[in-house]
What we know:
single chain; alpha/beta; Rossmann fold; about 35% helix
Amino acid sequence: MLNEENIIETKNLSKNYSIGHTEIKSVIDANIKIKRGSFTVIVGPSGSGKTTLVNLITGLERPSKGHVLFDGQRIEDMNEYQLTMLRCNKIGFVFQLYNLIPILSTLENVELPTIALGLDRKEGRNRAIQMLEQVGLEHRLNHKPMELSGGEQHRVAIARAMVNNPEVLVADEPTASLDSVTGKKLINLMKTLKEEKGVTIITCTHDLLVSDQAEELFTMRDGRVVDKTIK
Length: 231
């Protein structure tokens, strides 16, 4: 049974990949608990297993061994439809390359998850406008991604991730392509969303600017979680 204080728990979570005759152990016996409403950061060198761990706890990948409890549900027991609904309803993703659709406007990009969820078109559009207002882009509704700066594109990606009111916002290397000033503004935006909406933030990063803001900090090395710091 999931402790109500924790939105995610893992037990001996592992992921192996086979490349030819070689087995790669990407995540090894990870036992973590992520507190509901926390700003959680996963750090470690490239190849340490950060992104794979995040993919496992959000159902993007299936574990080779072990268990994930997400808000009381065992992810490994879900079929593909159930996993899709979990991600649509409870998880917002901000990918490192944003993954905005270039032929769509800012507003249309943010609307997309509401369509996937089957919301009424008017309600979905109103949600999208409200989220873009919250991230300060109400004046960019009809602009295409290529007409926006990197920081603006990232805010569009956050608005899209948050439009379905998820319980968890996942951001992979959120400041990697941004200058320090824009990166700090982005971190402050995520912190504001956490405080105002109670969303749990999970991010993996190399950036000290991000890790310094962590309330829970997990350090990975060679596929293992080697340290946890609570600030």
